């Protein structure tokens, strides 16, 4: 087995994007006609009349654009509404039922509608006179044709005319969205109308307590308040979910075995945070758990309230001894436990507010386990309020949440429940001892796109249950709640003992689970995520003798973050390898943007450097590469970029497929390989500044030769500091660092 290598010392170089965006670009599959423009004028007029007659509780208006495809940021409206600033007026985004088109909601002034009508009419006048059959992309890009038009006579600039035509080529319709009525107490997210929440509700006739406001857009309403809101202003509701009042069920096999196991006192073991039901201090490992009861003293508590939380803690502290078949080699961990729920009943709104407070007051803990989840299915068009809070906490703090993938409460519930739709968290589904999906496992994806769950692990089944310690003794259990703590153990080991950052630690687990499985089926991704994480930590921090695995990490500050100094060993002037790379990062997210939830996209390119100084990407990804094919600039549709290259996903996996007959790759003048991280932002360019990323690269020698020593030598000669992830050495260092020194 080879050690995984950590490369340090040669920082990635930061480069800004050069050149402009190239001006307006028209939809090549559409012809823009005068009739289409006049129909949109009529629709805007109808929406104007609607808002004039509506007694709305805010200044301004809401309007939704139904696009005719999934649109890239560059194809959103940039001539109508507020022109180039229209992107900043977006307050919501979702897909149609078929998930083939964008519906994007804008918050505007009435004057913006008047100006848009005027622009559409002036544009239609030009089309009527000059383009009776409409404008297609060829005509649109014909400079001679455009230069002949006397734009001043029509009181419109050429650039504005072209932008309006481009806008219309992507627009199907305008509408005012009305939310589906909610009947039970719910967490409601409002469109951002730049109005104070309390004042907004007061104008509607709802007196809301400050404690019921999570942030300026998200509130908790009871049935009566909901009725008033949906009667008076249903257009205000961007998202609505019932307050999660039940914990997704687990299988508990109540065969208690009394007995006291010997447990030494904790010393320097890392601490994992647990947010769960209550904990019983009387169990044999009670000394290992620092317990904080967050439940109101006036609420009644019964013995069942202590079972789930205590069982989860037993896996984190002593899981390997309770389950020898799952001995991961990670040792024991301490727990700081926060009891936030009693039994199976709880308010997710209350818990969400508590989680923010808990993390703020416990900055020393890096890994947090949350095995609470909802019976309800997640929505295809927006992230749950609970998951959004977890994502925000992880963007702002150097922590990672491990979240259970939730269990089926009944046969008709299939999709995962909140907060398993958290994009930045490590979401864990459960498999049987034989590595098959369990009967209780629910499936992703999140927002119809993000691979949730991230990974799978052993959660117990009739085949072989997970042994835990509950207040009454040992019990056999099954559920995603009992798969997640094992992953929390591994993450804490990588972060707190081996000293890796969370981006690299997450990437290592996902890379180990995925291995060389380049194309799992959609069914596999929905149930297993990237795959099943190996049991032994040694199988994660070591690799096969015919493989070189190395880690790099840095920070994205500009559009292109690159490093061209990876000296991959050569044999007969060729590279006898296939390669893969896994990258993780924790982006800022914006729940109000709906399906366009992640603000920042980091696009990974890795491969040889050709004679033009460009990276020959191992996946063949041409995004952001300024590539010209057949004398035409390469163009990739947004939908295809999302499907093929996981655009906007915060986990990137790029790989070559192993084949029966593999040929070595030719080398170029530059014998190094390169890596580029291209950064794109949906809204504010500053969103992507300072985002850390971690990449795990694996090179597999196609002839089975071990070339790691040559790679280490080459790296050293190229100025890299090469650290072997030697477990025993790192453990010894961790002990020394945490030693108590007594001064005489």
Structural overview:
By secondary structure, this protein is α+β, with helices and mostly antiparallel strands. It contains 17 helices and 34 strands. Strands 13-14-12-15-16-17-18 form a seven-stranded parallel beta sheet, with helices on both faces. Strands 30-25-33-22-2-34 form a six-stranded mixed beta sheet, sandwiched between helices. A five-stranded antiparallel beta sheet has the order 3-23-32-26-27, with no helix packed on it. A hairpin with a 2-residue loop joins strand 28 (628-629) and strand 29. This is S8 family peptidase.
Features:
744 residues, single chain, alpha+beta, six-stranded mixed sheet, flat
Q: How confident is the prediction overall: mean pLDDT? A: 88
The beta-strand count equals 34
Poorly predicted ranges: 624-636
The end-to-end distance, rounded to whole angstroms, is 45 Å
How many distinct helices?
17
Tell me the β content. Answer: 15-25%
Helix content: 25-40%
Strand order of the largest sheet: 13-14-12-15-16-17-18
Radius of gyration: 28 Å
Structural class: alpha+beta
Biggest β-sheet: count, sense, barrel?
7 strands, parallel
Instruction: Categorize the overall geometry.
Output: flat
Protein name: S8 family peptidase
């Amino acid at each position: 087995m080879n050690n995984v290598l950590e490369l340090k010392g040669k920082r990635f170089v930061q480069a800004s994007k050069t050149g402009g965006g190239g001006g307006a670009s028209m939809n090549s599959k559409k012809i823009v006609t005068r009739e289409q423009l006049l129909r949109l004028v009529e629709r805007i007029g109808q929406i104007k009349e609607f808002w004039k007659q509506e007694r709305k509780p805010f200044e301004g208006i809401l309007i939704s654009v139904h696009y005719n495809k999934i649109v890239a940021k560059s194809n959103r409206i940039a001539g109508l509404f507020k022109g180039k600033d229209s992107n900043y007026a977006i307050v919501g985004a979702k897909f149609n039922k078929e998930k083939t088109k964008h519906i994007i909601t804008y918050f505007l002034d009435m004057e913006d509608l008047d100006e848009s009508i005027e622009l559409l009419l002036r544009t239609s006048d030009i089309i009527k006179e000059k383009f009776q059959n409409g404008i297609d992309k060829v005509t649109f890009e014909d400079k001679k044709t455009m230069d002949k038009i006397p734009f001043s006579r029509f009181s419109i600039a050429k650039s504005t005319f072209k932008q309006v035509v481009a806008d219309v080529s992507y627009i199907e319709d305008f509408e005012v969205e009305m939310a589906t009525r909610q009947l039970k107490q719910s967490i409601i997210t409002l469109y951002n109308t730049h109005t104070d929440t309390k004042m907004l509700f007061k104008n509607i006739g709802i007196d809301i307590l400050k404690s019921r406001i999570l942030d300026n857009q998200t509130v908790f309403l009871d049935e009566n308040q909901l009725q008033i809101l949906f009667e008076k202003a249903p257009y205000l509701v961007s998202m609505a979910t019932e307050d999660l009042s039940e914990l997704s069920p687990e299988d508990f096999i109540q065969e208690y075995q009394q007995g006291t196991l010997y447990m030494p006192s904790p010393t320097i073991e890392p601490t994992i945070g647990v947010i769960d039901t209550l904990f019983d201090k009387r169990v044999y490992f009670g000394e290992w758990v620092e317990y904080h009861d967050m439940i109101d003293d006036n609420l009644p508590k019964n013995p069942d309230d202590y079972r789930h939380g205590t069982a989860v803690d037993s896996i984190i502290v002593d899981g390997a001894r309770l389950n020898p078949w799952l001995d991961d080699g990670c040792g024991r961990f301490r727990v700081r436990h926060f009891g936030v729920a009693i039994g199976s009943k709880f308010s997710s709104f209350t818990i969400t507010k508590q989680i923010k407070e808990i993390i703020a007051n416990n900055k020393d803990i890096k890994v947090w386990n949350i095995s609470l989840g909802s019976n309800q299915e997640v929505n295809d068009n927006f992230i749950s309020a609970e998951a959004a809070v977890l994502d925000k906490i992880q963007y702002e703090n150097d922590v990672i949440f491990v979240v259970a993938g939730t269990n089926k409460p009944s046969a008709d519930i299939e999709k995962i429940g909140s907060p398993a739709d958290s994009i930045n968290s490590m979401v864990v589904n459960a498999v049987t001892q034989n590595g098959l999906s369990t009967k209780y496992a629910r499936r992703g994806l999140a927002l119809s796109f993000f691979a949730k769950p991230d990974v799978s692990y052993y959660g117990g089944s009739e085949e072989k249950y997970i042994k835990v310690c509950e207040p009454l003794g040992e019990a056999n259990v099954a559920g995603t709640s009992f798969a997640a703590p094992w992953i929390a153990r591994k993450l804490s080991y990588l972060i707190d003992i081996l000293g890796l950052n969370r981006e690299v630690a997450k990437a290592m687990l996902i890379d180990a689970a995925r291995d060389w499985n380049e194309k799992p089926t959609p069914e596999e991704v929905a149930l297993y995520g990237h795959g099943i994480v190996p049991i032994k930590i040694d199988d994660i921090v070591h690799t096969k003798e015919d493989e070189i695995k190395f880690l790099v990490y840095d920070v994205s500050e500009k559009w292109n973050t690159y490093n061209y100094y990876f000296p991959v060993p050569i044999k007969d002037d060729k590279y006898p390898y296939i390669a893969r790379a896994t990258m993780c990062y924790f982006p800022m997210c914006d729940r109000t943007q709906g399906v366009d939830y992640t603000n920042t996209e980091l696009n990974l390119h890795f491969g040889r450097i050709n004679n033009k100084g460009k990276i020959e990407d191992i996946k063949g990804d041409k995004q952001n590469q300024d590539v010209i094919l057949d004398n035409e600039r390469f163009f990739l549709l947004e939908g295809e970029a999302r499907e093929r290259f996981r655009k906007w996903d915060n986990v990137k996996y790029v790989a070559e497929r192993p084949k029966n007959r593999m040929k070595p790759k030719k080398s170029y003048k530059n014998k190094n390989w390169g890596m580029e991280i291209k950064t794109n932002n949906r809204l504010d360019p500053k969103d992507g500044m300072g985002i850390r990323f971690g990449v795990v690269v694996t090179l597999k020698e196609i002839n089975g030769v071990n070339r790691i020593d040559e790679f280490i030598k080459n790296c050293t000669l190229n100025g890299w500091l090469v650290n072997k992830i030697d477990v025993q050495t790192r453990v010894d260092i961790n002990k020394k660092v945490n030693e108590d020194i007594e001064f005489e």
